[in-house]
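BUG: 3D viewer hangs when loading the predicted structure for this chain

Environment: internal workstation, default settings.
Expected: structure renders.
Actual: progress bar stalls at 90%.

Input used:
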Amino acid sequence: YGVPPGELRRRRGGAGPGRQPGHIELRLACRPPFDGRALVHFLRLHAVTGVEDAGGSRSVGTYRRTLRLPHSTGIVTLRPERDGAAAVRCGLSLSDVRDVGAAVERCRRIADLDADPVAVHEVLSRDPDLAGDLRRHPGLRVPGHPDGFELAARAVLGQQVSMASARALTARLVRELGDPLPSSDGDLTHLFPTAGQIAAAGPDRIAGPRARARTLVALAEAAAAGTVALDRSADRADVEAALIALPGIGPWTAGYIAMRALADPDVVLVGDVGLHAALDLRGPAAREALGRRASGWRPWGSYAALHLWHRVLDQRWPDEMDTNQSEGVAA
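C-alpha coordinates produced before the viewer hung:
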Protein backbone atom coordinates (compact mmCIF):
# COMPACT_ATOMS: atom_id res chain seq x y z
CA TYR A 1 0.00 0.00 0.00
CA GLY A 2 3.02 2.29 -0.28
CA VAL A 3 3.61 2.11 3.50
CA PRO A 4 6.05 -0.31 5.18
CA PRO A 5 4.43 -2.82 7.59
CA GLY A 6 6.18 -1.20 10.54
CA GLU A 7 4.68 2.15 9.65
CA LEU A 8 1.20 0.62 9.46
CA ARG A 9 1.70 -0.83 12.92
CA ARG A 10 2.88 2.55 14.22
CA ARG A 11 -0.29 4.20 12.93
CA ARG A 12 -2.67 1.93 14.81
CA GLY A 13 -3.19 4.43 17.58
CA GLY A 14 -4.09 8.10 17.41
CA ALA A 15 -2.02 9.72 14.68
CA GLY A 16 -2.41 13.38 15.54
CA PRO A 17 -5.06 16.05 16.03
CA GLY A 18 -8.39 15.22 14.44
CA ARG A 19 -7.42 11.65 13.72
CA GLN A 20 -9.43 8.72 14.97
CA PRO A 21 -7.73 5.66 16.50
CA GLY A 22 -6.85 3.32 13.67
CA HIS A 23 -6.56 6.12 11.10
CA ILE A 24 -4.24 5.30 8.21
CA GLU A 25 -3.33 7.38 5.16
CA LEU A 26 -2.32 5.53 1.99
CA ARG A 27 -1.63 6.29 -1.66
CA LEU A 28 -3.26 3.81 -4.03
CA ALA A 29 -1.67 3.82 -7.47
CA CYS A 30 -3.18 2.65 -10.74
CA ARG A 31 -2.32 2.44 -14.42
CA PRO A 32 -2.40 5.80 -16.20
CA PRO A 33 -4.31 7.64 -17.42
CA PHE A 34 -6.89 8.05 -14.66
CA ASP A 35 -9.90 10.40 -14.67
CA GLY A 36 -10.43 10.75 -10.95
CA ARG A 37 -12.61 13.86 -11.27
CA ALA A 38 -15.22 12.03 -13.36
CA LEU A 39 -15.14 9.10 -10.94
CA VAL A 40 -15.90 11.28 -7.93
CA HIS A 41 -18.60 13.19 -9.79
CA PHE A 42 -20.40 9.95 -10.71
CA LEU A 43 -20.20 8.76 -7.10
CA ARG A 44 -21.45 12.13 -5.84
CA LEU A 45 -24.52 11.95 -8.06
CA HIS A 46 -25.41 8.58 -6.54
CA ALA A 47 -24.44 9.31 -2.92
CA VAL A 48 -26.95 8.23 -0.27
CA THR A 49 -27.12 10.22 2.96
CA GLY A 50 -26.09 8.16 5.96
CA VAL A 51 -23.68 5.81 4.18
CA GLU A 52 -21.99 8.23 1.77
CA ASP A 53 -20.70 11.79 1.56
CA ALA A 54 -19.26 12.89 -1.77
CA GLY A 55 -18.41 16.48 -1.00
CA GLY A 56 -21.49 18.03 0.52
CA SER A 57 -19.99 18.67 3.92
CA ARG A 58 -16.33 18.22 3.01
CA SER A 59 -14.12 19.46 0.19
CA VAL A 60 -15.24 19.03 -3.39
CA GLY A 61 -13.42 16.20 -5.15
CA THR A 62 -13.58 13.82 -2.20
CA TYR A 63 -15.73 10.74 -1.72
CA ARG A 64 -16.39 9.28 1.73
CA ARG A 65 -18.45 6.32 2.87
CA THR A 66 -18.95 3.76 5.62
CA LEU A 67 -17.72 0.19 5.29
CA ARG A 68 -18.80 -3.07 6.87
CA LEU A 69 -15.57 -5.03 7.32
CA PRO A 70 -14.67 -8.56 8.48
CA HIS A 71 -13.74 -7.56 12.03
CA SER A 72 -15.62 -4.32 12.55
CA THR A 73 -16.55 -1.11 10.71
CA GLY A 74 -14.71 1.71 9.00
CA ILE A 75 -14.92 4.98 7.13
CA VAL A 76 -13.00 5.53 3.93
CA THR A 77 -12.06 8.84 2.31
CA LEU A 78 -10.97 8.74 -1.34
CA ARG A 79 -9.39 11.78 -2.98
CA PRO A 80 -7.86 11.53 -6.47
CA GLU A 81 -4.48 13.20 -6.75
CA ARG A 82 -4.94 16.83 -7.80
CA ASP A 83 -1.89 16.94 -10.07
CA GLY A 84 -3.42 14.46 -12.48
CA ALA A 85 -1.28 11.57 -11.26
CA ALA A 86 -2.75 8.08 -11.60
CA ALA A 87 -3.37 7.58 -7.91
CA VAL A 88 -5.92 8.06 -5.15
CA ARG A 89 -5.24 9.29 -1.64
CA CYS A 90 -7.02 6.92 0.72
CA GLY A 91 -7.80 7.71 4.33
CA LEU A 92 -9.02 4.81 6.45
CA SER A 93 -10.56 5.21 9.90
CA LEU A 94 -10.85 1.65 11.15
CA SER A 95 -12.32 0.29 14.35
CA ASP A 96 -9.96 -2.69 13.99
CA VAL A 97 -6.68 -2.24 12.12
CA ARG A 98 -6.74 -5.90 11.08
CA ASP A 99 -9.26 -4.79 8.46
CA VAL A 100 -6.77 -2.65 6.54
CA GLY A 101 -6.28 -5.24 3.78
CA ALA A 102 -10.02 -5.75 3.26
CA ALA A 103 -10.63 -2.00 3.32
CA VAL A 104 -7.96 -1.31 0.70
CA GLU A 105 -9.36 -4.03 -1.55
CA ARG A 106 -12.79 -2.41 -1.34
CA CYS A 107 -11.31 1.01 -2.12
CA ARG A 108 -9.55 -0.29 -5.20
CA ARG A 109 -12.86 -1.86 -6.23
CA ILE A 110 -14.79 1.42 -5.81
CA ALA A 111 -12.32 3.35 -7.97
CA ASP A 112 -11.71 0.53 -10.49
CA LEU A 113 -7.99 0.96 -9.87
CA ASP A 114 -7.01 -2.38 -11.40
CA ALA A 115 -8.42 -1.53 -14.83
CA ASP A 116 -6.20 -1.37 -17.92
CA PRO A 117 -7.13 1.95 -19.55
CA VAL A 118 -4.67 1.49 -22.43
CA ALA A 119 -6.32 -1.78 -23.47
CA VAL A 120 -9.75 -0.15 -23.18
CA HIS A 121 -8.67 2.81 -25.30
CA GLU A 122 -7.17 0.58 -27.97
CA VAL A 123 -10.57 -1.03 -28.63
CA LEU A 124 -12.92 1.91 -28.08
CA SER A 125 -10.83 4.24 -30.23
CA ARG A 126 -11.85 2.14 -33.25
CA ASP A 127 -15.30 3.70 -32.98
CA PRO A 128 -14.91 7.22 -34.42
CA ASP A 129 -18.02 8.43 -32.60
CA LEU A 130 -16.27 7.83 -29.26
CA ALA A 131 -13.19 9.88 -30.17
CA GLY A 132 -14.40 13.03 -28.44
CA ASP A 133 -15.43 11.10 -25.31
CA LEU A 134 -12.02 9.45 -25.07
CA ARG A 135 -10.30 12.84 -25.36
CA ARG A 136 -12.54 14.43 -22.70
CA HIS A 137 -12.19 11.57 -20.23
CA PRO A 138 -8.93 9.67 -20.75
CA GLY A 139 -8.70 6.80 -18.31
CA LEU A 140 -12.38 6.87 -17.38
CA ARG A 141 -13.18 4.14 -14.85
CA VAL A 142 -16.35 2.11 -14.20
CA PRO A 143 -17.16 2.89 -10.55
CA GLY A 144 -17.37 -0.33 -8.61
CA HIS A 145 -18.90 -0.97 -5.23
CA PRO A 146 -17.62 -2.32 -1.90
CA ASP A 147 -20.74 -4.44 -1.29
CA GLY A 148 -22.49 -6.35 -4.05
CA PHE A 149 -25.74 -6.71 -2.15
CA GLU A 150 -25.91 -3.00 -1.36
CA LEU A 151 -25.45 -2.13 -5.04
CA ALA A 152 -28.12 -4.63 -6.08
CA ALA A 153 -30.58 -3.36 -3.47
CA ARG A 154 -30.01 0.22 -4.59
CA ALA A 155 -30.57 -0.76 -8.22
CA VAL A 156 -33.94 -2.26 -7.28
CA LEU A 157 -34.92 0.79 -5.23
CA GLY A 158 -34.05 2.96 -8.22
CA GLN A 159 -36.44 1.24 -10.60
CA GLN A 160 -38.92 3.56 -12.34
CA VAL A 161 -38.06 6.63 -10.26
CA SER A 162 -35.73 9.61 -10.68
CA MET A 163 -32.24 9.50 -9.27
CA ALA A 164 -33.20 11.95 -6.52
CA SER A 165 -36.15 9.77 -5.51
CA ALA A 166 -33.94 6.68 -5.54
CA ARG A 167 -31.47 8.36 -3.19
CA ALA A 168 -34.27 9.47 -0.85
CA LEU A 169 -35.82 5.98 -0.73
CA THR A 170 -32.45 4.41 -0.08
CA ALA A 171 -31.60 6.90 2.66
CA ARG A 172 -34.90 6.11 4.35
CA LEU A 173 -34.12 2.37 4.20
CA VAL A 174 -30.71 3.07 5.75
CA ARG A 175 -32.28 5.03 8.62
CA GLU A 176 -34.96 2.39 9.20
CA LEU A 177 -32.89 -0.79 9.02
CA GLY A 178 -29.19 0.05 8.93
CA ASP A 179 -26.91 -0.28 11.94
CA PRO A 180 -25.84 3.11 13.36
CA LEU A 181 -22.11 3.71 13.52
CA PRO A 182 -20.65 3.61 17.02
CA SER A 183 -19.67 7.24 16.42
CA SER A 184 -21.08 9.26 13.51
CA ASP A 185 -18.81 11.40 11.36
CA GLY A 186 -20.68 14.27 9.72
CA ASP A 187 -23.13 12.86 7.19
CA LEU A 188 -21.81 9.33 7.78
CA THR A 189 -24.08 7.80 10.39
CA HIS A 190 -25.01 4.25 9.36
CA LEU A 191 -24.00 1.04 7.67
CA PHE A 192 -26.18 -0.15 4.82
CA PRO A 193 -28.54 -2.91 6.04
CA THR A 194 -27.51 -6.48 5.34
CA ALA A 195 -29.50 -8.91 3.23
CA GLY A 196 -30.54 -10.68 6.41
CA GLN A 197 -31.82 -7.47 7.99
CA ILE A 198 -33.94 -6.57 4.96
CA ALA A 199 -35.26 -10.11 4.58
CA ALA A 200 -36.27 -10.18 8.26
CA ALA A 201 -37.97 -6.78 8.03
CA GLY A 202 -40.22 -7.82 5.16
CA PRO A 203 -41.87 -5.60 2.52
CA ASP A 204 -44.10 -3.67 4.93
CA ARG A 205 -41.13 -1.72 6.30
CA ILE A 206 -39.86 -0.68 2.88
CA ALA A 207 -41.15 2.58 1.41
CA GLY A 208 -42.45 2.78 -2.13
CA PRO A 209 -44.63 0.58 -4.31
CA ARG A 210 -45.49 -2.81 -2.82
CA ALA A 211 -44.26 -4.69 -5.89
CA ARG A 212 -40.82 -3.11 -5.65
CA ALA A 213 -40.67 -3.78 -1.90
CA ARG A 214 -41.45 -7.43 -2.56
CA THR A 215 -38.71 -7.53 -5.20
CA LEU A 216 -36.19 -6.12 -2.75
CA VAL A 217 -37.16 -8.64 -0.08
CA ALA A 218 -36.95 -11.51 -2.60
CA LEU A 219 -33.45 -10.31 -3.56
CA ALA A 220 -32.45 -10.07 0.10
CA GLU A 221 -33.75 -13.56 0.85
CA ALA A 222 -31.87 -15.00 -2.13
CA ALA A 223 -28.65 -13.21 -1.15
CA ALA A 224 -28.96 -14.25 2.51
CA ALA A 225 -29.56 -17.86 1.49
CA GLY A 226 -26.67 -17.86 -0.97
CA THR A 227 -28.92 -18.49 -3.96
CA VAL A 228 -27.59 -15.29 -5.54
CA ALA A 229 -23.87 -14.67 -4.96
CA LEU A 230 -23.21 -10.97 -5.46
CA ASP A 231 -19.44 -11.00 -5.42
CA ARG A 232 -16.73 -10.86 -8.05
CA SER A 233 -15.73 -14.50 -7.67
CA ALA A 234 -19.15 -15.70 -8.86
CA ASP A 235 -19.90 -16.76 -12.43
CA ARG A 236 -21.42 -13.66 -14.01
CA ALA A 237 -23.77 -15.51 -16.34
CA ASP A 238 -25.09 -17.61 -13.46
CA VAL A 239 -25.62 -14.54 -11.28
CA GLU A 240 -27.46 -12.65 -14.01
CA ALA A 241 -29.69 -15.66 -14.68
CA ALA A 242 -30.46 -16.01 -10.96
CA LEU A 243 -31.29 -12.30 -10.71
CA ILE A 244 -33.61 -12.34 -13.71
CA ALA A 245 -35.41 -15.33 -12.19
CA LEU A 246 -36.45 -13.14 -9.27
CA PRO A 247 -39.76 -11.28 -9.57
CA GLY A 248 -39.36 -7.69 -10.69
CA ILE A 249 -35.76 -7.92 -11.93
CA GLY A 250 -35.16 -7.74 -15.67
CA PRO A 251 -32.15 -7.52 -17.98
CA TRP A 252 -31.39 -3.84 -17.28
CA THR A 253 -31.19 -4.25 -13.50
CA ALA A 254 -29.26 -7.52 -13.78
CA GLY A 255 -26.84 -5.99 -16.27
CA TYR A 256 -26.27 -2.89 -14.16
CA ILE A 257 -25.53 -5.08 -11.13
CA ALA A 258 -23.10 -7.13 -13.22
CA MET A 259 -21.36 -3.96 -14.40
CA ARG A 260 -20.81 -2.35 -11.01
CA ALA A 261 -20.97 -5.16 -8.43
CA LEU A 262 -19.42 -8.04 -10.40
CA ALA A 263 -16.96 -5.89 -12.40
CA ASP A 264 -18.15 -7.27 -15.74
CA PRO A 265 -16.24 -5.12 -18.27
CA ASP A 266 -18.56 -5.87 -21.18
CA VAL A 267 -22.12 -5.00 -20.17
CA VAL A 268 -24.31 -3.32 -22.78
CA LEU A 269 -27.66 -2.10 -21.46
CA VAL A 270 -29.48 -2.06 -24.78
CA GLY A 271 -32.66 -0.64 -23.22
CA ASP A 272 -30.97 2.30 -21.51
CA VAL A 273 -32.46 5.61 -22.64
CA GLY A 274 -29.34 7.52 -21.57
CA LEU A 275 -27.28 5.50 -24.04
CA HIS A 276 -29.97 5.96 -26.70
CA ALA A 277 -29.89 9.73 -26.14
CA ALA A 278 -26.09 9.90 -26.28
CA LEU A 279 -26.07 8.11 -29.63
CA ASP A 280 -29.21 9.82 -30.93
CA LEU A 281 -30.99 6.48 -31.34
CA ARG A 282 -34.77 6.78 -31.51
CA GLY A 283 -37.85 4.65 -31.87
CA PRO A 284 -38.45 0.91 -31.59
CA ALA A 285 -35.23 0.08 -33.45
CA ALA A 286 -33.00 1.77 -30.85
CA ARG A 287 -32.28 -1.41 -28.87
CA GLU A 288 -31.25 -3.37 -31.94
CA ALA A 289 -29.14 -0.49 -33.23
CA LEU A 290 -27.33 -0.17 -29.89
CA GLY A 291 -26.68 -3.91 -29.81
CA ARG A 292 -25.09 -3.77 -33.26
CA ARG A 293 -23.00 -0.76 -32.32
CA ALA A 294 -21.82 -2.42 -29.12
CA SER A 295 -20.41 -5.43 -30.95
CA GLY A 296 -17.42 -3.27 -31.83
CA TRP A 297 -16.77 -2.36 -28.20
CA ARG A 298 -16.15 -5.89 -26.97
CA PRO A 299 -14.79 -6.76 -24.47
CA TRP A 300 -15.08 -3.25 -22.98
CA GLY A 301 -18.77 -2.42 -23.40
CA SER A 302 -19.11 -1.25 -19.80
CA TYR A 303 -16.45 1.42 -20.36
CA ALA A 304 -18.16 2.57 -23.56
CA ALA A 305 -21.40 2.89 -21.59
CA LEU A 306 -19.68 5.07 -18.96
CA HIS A 307 -18.27 7.31 -21.67
CA LEU A 308 -21.72 7.74 -23.19
CA TRP A 309 -23.35 8.41 -19.80
CA HIS A 310 -20.70 11.05 -19.18
CA ARG A 311 -21.44 12.54 -22.59
CA VAL A 312 -24.97 13.20 -21.34
CA LEU A 313 -23.67 14.28 -17.93
CA ASP A 314 -21.20 16.76 -19.41
CA GLN A 315 -24.04 18.44 -21.29
CA ARG A 316 -26.06 18.83 -18.08
CA TRP A 317 -23.21 19.64 -15.69
CA PRO A 318 -23.73 19.83 -12.78
CA ASP A 319 -27.28 18.47 -13.07
CA GLU A 320 -28.19 14.87 -12.46
CA MET A 321 -27.39 12.19 -15.01
CA ASP A 322 -30.53 10.08 -15.37
CA THR A 323 -29.90 6.81 -17.19
CA ASN A 324 -33.22 5.20 -16.46
CA GLN A 325 -35.38 3.18 -18.81
CA SER A 326 -38.65 1.34 -18.37
CA GLU A 327 -37.23 -1.09 -15.85
CA GLY A 328 -34.80 0.92 -13.73
CA VAL A 329 -32.56 3.88 -13.06
CA ALA A 330 -28.83 3.76 -12.44
CA ALA A 331 -28.51 3.54 -8.66
